[in-house]
Amino acid sequence: MSAPNSSNHTPKIDPKALRSALGTFTTGVTIITTQADNGEPVGLTANSFNSVSLEPPLVLWSLAKTALSLPIFNTAEHWNVHVLSMDQQALSNRFAARGEDKFKDLQLDQGITNAPLLSQCSARFQCKTAFIHDGGDHVIFIGEVLDFDQSNLPPLVFQSGQYALTARKPWQDVSLSQADAPLECSYTEDLLGYLLGRAHFQMLKGMQQELAKYDLTSSHFFALSVLAIRDGLTLAQINAHIDYTGQALTQGQLDQLIHANLLAYRESKTTDAEVFLTEQGRQASLGQIAQAKAIEDELIDELGRGDVTALKLLLKRIIHQTDPGLPDLWSTDSN
Amino acid sequence: MSAPNSSNHTPKIDPKALRSALGTFTTGVTIITTQADNGEPVGLTANSFNSVSLEPPLVLWSLAKTALSLPIFNTAEHWNVHVLSMDQQALSNRFAARGEDKFKDLQLDQGITNAPLLSQCSARFQCKTAFIHDGGDHVIFIGEVLDFDQSNLPPLVFQSGQYALTARKPWQDVSLSQADAPLECSYTEDLLGYLLGRAHFQMLKGMQQELAKYDLTSSHFFALSVLAIRDGLTLAQINAHIDYTGQALTQGQLDQLIHANLLAYRESKTTDAEVFLTEQGRQASLGQIAQAKAIEDELIDELGRGDVTALKLLLKRIIHQTDPGLPDLWSTDSN
Predict the structure, then answer these.
(1) B54 belongs to a structural domain
(2) What residues in chain A have per-residue pLDDT under 70?
(3) Which of A156, B20, B106, B322 has its CA 20 to 30 A from that of A100?
(4) Does B203 share its domain with B257?
(5) Do B311 and A192 touch (CB under 8 A)?
């Protein structure tokens, strides 16, 4: 924090530092569109949007005076604001760059004015210019909302120069324990390692019914999952892929899977022969994947697709950070 | 999405539906403060803040014409904008409600004007009223930034009437596989169950060195962790707490822990006697917790505290959703 200054002294403002501080204020991402006098569609990405008034319905956004499209918006009677959804990051980048072909191949909807109306947004506001105010190096456009609509697509977010998703805080309590005062122990329910373990094991417990159909343990399940992705591996190769779980498929467990007709050697068995999923093994694995997806779909119903996507994003980031160098299960280049 | 309307017809705008659609635009949360003529501090929560201009430095926010503080802000020469940090949700609620004592017990910093300056924010902007514009049922205040500062505290977010945290998208790729085209398999790296398992096991792998000190498996580790929270449990009680992991501590493993002088029976052993952590067992457990926290701290360094907190929030939410009814490990009411 900067040192306090006397009230008579106005310190010089560093625009770069100011931009950084302003960036801490999180925003959504919008694309604003209009039609130029020559009929050309015009659009740009802006995060300076905000609501102003409900009655009358007014919204605002601001545009740099250096923007090429300023003269067009200055005379435009109508413009549309699109609150972008989380899958529209590429569209945001496209409309943030200077380019001739921003609208190329875009499917436009029919609006109530001539301003281009993009699809697949979280919300859209069709506006009529109400006021234009000077705002330093920007111009502030205030528009009256003539029509609007809203989808259930989770929105894209922008914070400190980065795209983001939101993890929403529900109104209900999310603490796991009913304990009024935490016991005197540094092992709390807030420890990330505990939360990851508990979430993982509870998900796995949801798979129990599928696994019980073939009397499978988690080691069996992990091995079948590896073979569902890369078929034809030796026991050692399977175990190289599941080693990070701290579990290994034993020769005895492999024999069980072969005996249960879920796996088979393609040729006569040698010491390090490759095993393949049988048709029944593939069906069992598909059933397990379907069950995992069903649990995930239920969570999407409860938490929302945006929050589950945010969770996956964060999990991938910590997997990257903690990766001990696991073999790439999905790459065709290695075995 | 609503049906297109003819351009000659302006549909009636439903304020409630409009508010909902506007809510899809994510914002930060700010508290705006000023000093009334009588010297009283005044403040309110607003998410209508936005930056306008860098040179000159201008920001804006809008205030409902029905607000009690409107006359005060209308004549105020200075006001401060505080971008709230993620731990300031209670402060946001306090300043969003009508109350006399909003500033009670708050530690104020010394600003360059008389406007109250709150602490522990993500960023603060000390402003001088530049313009005041009419905005329907709101008044738009545009201020020149006289001074500002920024902390590294992650910001609080608001979306669709709910508080939220952000899961930021890094610039680098977060996909786990180098595979150009995904193999033809419905088991992908995007499956939540896979991501949870991999993240959990990689965290556990980071504990390996601590566990190896006493030759412990994950079952031993889970049992020691339970006893670190609730000491004096029988083998059956320990296993009731770790059952959800799909693992159980066997009598043989319990004997190992006693033999290693990590656990002890307090009295002479009976069939279902309670075991306690020895001093050495407590030290071992503290070492494990410290290691788990060190891994977490490293992740906070890499991802940021806001993102790790968002991850924990999301994990708690899915643990709630998938909870098969586990006993409360931290509650003193039950065993």
Answers:
(1) yes
(2) 1-11, 180-186, 268-271, 332-335
(3) A156
(4) yes
(5) yes
Q: How far apart are the CA of A325 and the nearest CA of chain B, in angstroms? A: 10
A262 CB-side CA count, 13 A: 24
Instruction: Decide if A123 and B157 are in contact by the 8 Å CB cutoff.
Output: no
CATH number at residue A73: 2.30.110.10
Q: With contacts defined as CB-CB under 8 Å, which chain B residues touch A200?
A: 196-197, 199-201
Best mutation target among A25, A148, A331, A332 (most B Cβ atoms within 10 Å) is: A25
On whether both A243 and A289 belong to a single domain, the answer is yes
Other beta carbons within 10 Å of A236: 10
- Asked whether residue B6 carries a pLDDT value surpassing 60, the answer given is no
Conformation bin of residue B216: beta by default, left when phi > 0, alpha when psi is -120 to 50: beta
What's the pLDDT at A7? 42
Range of the domain at A108: 26-164
Please say which residue of B164, B184, B203 terminates a domain: B164
The reply to whether B38 and B160 lie within a common domain is yes
- Is B187 within a domain? no
B97 interface with A at CB cutoff 8 Å: no
- Domain holding A275: CATH number? 1.10.10.10
User: Please, which residues 175-204 of chain A have a Cβ atom closer than 8 Å to chain B?
Assistant: 175-179, 182-183, 185-204
Distance from CA of B298 to the nearest CA of A (A): 9
- The DSSP bridge partners found for residue B143 are B59, B129
Structure tokens at B252: 């043989």
Same domain, B147 and B220: no
Contact indicator for A229, B187 with CB cutoff of 8 Å: yes
- Give residue B262's identity as a one-letter amino acid code: L
C-alpha gyration radius of chain B: 28
Give yes or no: residues A98 and A204 share one domain. Answer: no
Cβ contacts of A320 on chain B, cutoff 8 Å: 174, 176
DSSP symbols for A156-222: PEEETTEEEEEEEPPSS---S---SS--S-S--TT-HHHHHHHHHHHHHHTTHHHHHTTT--HHHHH
pLDDT of residue B5: 41
ipTM computed for the complex: 0.92
**Residue B177 confidence class, pLDDT cut points 50, 70, 90:** confident
3-state secondary structure A257-292: HHHCCCEEECCCCCCCCCEEECHHHHHHHHHHHHHH
Number of independent structural domains in chain A: 2
Cβ <8 Å between B168 and A167: no
